[in-house]
UniProtKB/TrEMBL annotation:
Classification via InterPro entries: Chitinase_II/V-like_cat, Chitinase_insertion_sf, GH, Glyco_hydro18_cat, SLH_dom
Protein name listed in UniProt: Glycoside hydrolase family protein
Domain GH18: 237-537
Domain SLH: 31-94, 96-157, 170-232
Keywords: Hydrolase, Signal
A GO molecular function held by the record: chitin binding
Domain of life: Bacteria
PROSITE patterns per record: GH18_2, SLH
Species of origin: Paenibacillus mucilaginosus 3016
Signal peptide region: 1-27
Length: 537
């Protein structure tokens, strides 16, 4: 069996059964269980779980990864094609002589063959021998060839004429002469780019590639591909965010959480900027001035989450009244807003989808010179959002890929595998150039009392940070969640906490770059720590 679940048969994911907001059961078809043979301290742990989260690699039905297992040539090529986000669905028709179109790996091999990445593996008959175990030297050559092909012609020619020889002299591997002559220029390019490396005894080109080595190689390949990727950074300035006002220059967009939809009765609605936590605060001029000085976009967020939202979306009179009041605030020159972010949450029924799209069309038509951003929840059970239509009419779509919390199973807010799955589902309908990954800085805590009762809550970030430095607290990165896990005891009982810390936020940025998303959004700015903000400098 190879790294991938589809090589010979489909391995069902370790899905976790959860309760949706409707009260009905829902299974997330992603792996949310750790591998039993990948432990804390293993040098390949982060790489394995990162690639597992994005679905590039998989384990076995017995919950093992088998890190020392070997990889075939065809399995490696499938991983290579997938890691570079190539679509092998329509093969060119050309493939090595011994790979038939009926073979499971044919599309992937054909994609690599068409790009001449595997010429160095073919024998005199132009045959690949796809089931043959691939060696480290062969992997380095194929990976190096794929990387080199992405470079300008002048750079490729310079490398092939002298660059690889200089790299060979610099490395001086004791077994360098055992790297096949045709493999050397490309293998040394993989070494030069940091994709592969040797040790004090040599490069070991004849050794079979292990699954753990493959995970490390493909993680590095993805890093190499995304190294220059740029993300737009949107910060939600809301709910005690004034201490973060100095961070506005790090953002390309500031969304001010200063308003909400008020819908008290049929036919009546307005934009409320005066009451509750979503209001224009005193001293608003300073925050808007900071955004203007930073040349950041300035959006007004409109929030609503009451159960009668579906009724509002059928109430044309109320909508017209609301849109009039929204337009009055947006066009008020003293604020200088450049757009609006509609965050209307909780639409469960598919019947609401068309009504919401029609409402958004009305909003957009009324403010044609302002950008429209729409925040949406993952579509597992929020069926009232037509992502395809929303993605067509909005300038930006923010995917709030969090709040998966489930108390009974102690599932935290934003495990990386679920975030990834949410992104993939959204990308099937929303252009990546418009999709923004929402990140919520929060913690989930469960307390088990001595009598066995359990309570759960979301502690304040300042208290979590204080707890991190307290004695008696064990802490580690939790896999496959990619969230900081803390555990401790006190007079209340046993505590377990999952926290969106700097390291886990960085992994979500990596995810956004991998998919080529427009950017990320930060809910909300006041929660982010000094360490977090360094990621955006």
């Amino acid at each position: 069996m190879t790294l991938l679940s589809l090589i010979q048969k489909t391995i069902p994911a370790a899905a976790l059964l959860l309760l949706a907001a409707t009260g009905s059961a829902l299974a997330y078809d992603v792996s949310l269980k750790p591998f039993t043979d990948v432990s804390n301290g293993d040098w390949f742990q982060e790489e394995v779980y990162s690639l597992s989260a994005i679905g590039l690699i998989d384990g076995y039905p017995d919950a093992t990864f088998q890190p020392d297992g070997m990889l075939t040539r065809e399995a490696f090529l499938k991983l290579l094609v997938q890691s570079k986000s190539l679509d092998p669905a329509v093969p060119s028709g050309d493939a090595p002589a011994d790979v038939e179109p009926s073979r499971w790996s044919y599309p992937y091999i054909a994609a690599a063959y068409e790009r001449k990445w595997i010429d160095v593996l073919l024998d005199s008959r132009r045959a690949l021998d796809p089931q043959r175990t691939i060696t480290r030297g062969e992997v380095a050559a194929v990976a190096g060839r794929a990387l080199l092909d992405a470079q300008p012609q002048e750079a490729r020619e310079r490398w092939m004429s002298q660059g690889w020889q200089e790299e060979r002299e610099r490395r001086k591997y004791a077994d360098g002469d055992t790297i096949g002559e045709g493999l050397r220029p490309y293998a040394y390019y993989a070494v030069n780019r940091g994709i592969m490396e040797g040790d004090e005894t040599g490069f070991h080109p004849q050794q079979p590639l292990t699954r753990k080595e493959a995970a490390a190689i493909f993680y590095r390949l993805i890093d190499a591909e995304t190294a220059g990727a740029k993300l737009e950074h949107t910060g939600f300035y809301a709910i005690r965010s004034y201490p973060a006002i100095g961070r506005i220059p790090l953002l390309s967009q500031v969304t001010f959480g200063w308003s909400h939809l008020e819908y008290p009765s049929p036919g009546t609605a307005r934009l409320n900027t005066e009451k509750t936590e979503y209001r224009i605060p005193s001293g608003w001029e300073e925050a808007l001035g900071a955004a203007g000085s930073a040349k950041a976009g300035k959006e007004l967020m409109v929030y609503y989450g009451d159960k009668n939202l579906k009724d509002f979306l059928k109430d044309e009179g109320a909508q017209n009244a609301f849109i009039d009041s929204l337009k009055a605030v947006l066009t008020d020159k003293k604020y200088g807003f450049s757009g609006v972010c509609m965050d209307l949450e909780g639409l469960l029924e598919p019947a609401s989808a068309a009504d919401y799209v029609q409402f958004l069309h009305r909003v957009k038509k009324s403010i044609p010179d302002y950008k429209l951003t729409v925040a949406v929840q993952p579509d597992y059970y929020y069926k009232g959002y037509d992502l395809k239509e929303i993605g067509g009419l909005a300038d930006t779509v923010i995917l709030m890929a969090y709040n998966f919390t489930h108390d009974e199973s102690r599932l935290p807010s934003a495990p990386l595998p679920l975030v990834n799955d949410s992104v993939k589902r959204a990308l099937a309908l929303v252009p990546k150039e418009k999709l923004v990954l929402g990140i919520s800085k929060q913690a989930n805590q469960w307390v088990t009392a001595p009598d066995g009762g359990t309570d759960s809550f979301n502690p304040e970030i300042a208290e979590v940070e204080k707890r991190l430095g307290a004695p008696g607290v064990s802490q580690s990165m939790s896999y496959p969640y990619f969230l900081k896990r803390m555990a401790f005891q006190d007079e209340r009982g046993s505590h377990e906490m999952y926290y969106e810390d700097t390291e886990s936020i960085e992994k979500k940025l990596w995810l956004a770059k991998y998919y080529g998303l427009k950017g990320v959004s930060l809910w909300y700015m006041g929660n982010y720590t000094d360490s977090d903000w360094k990621l955006f400098e």
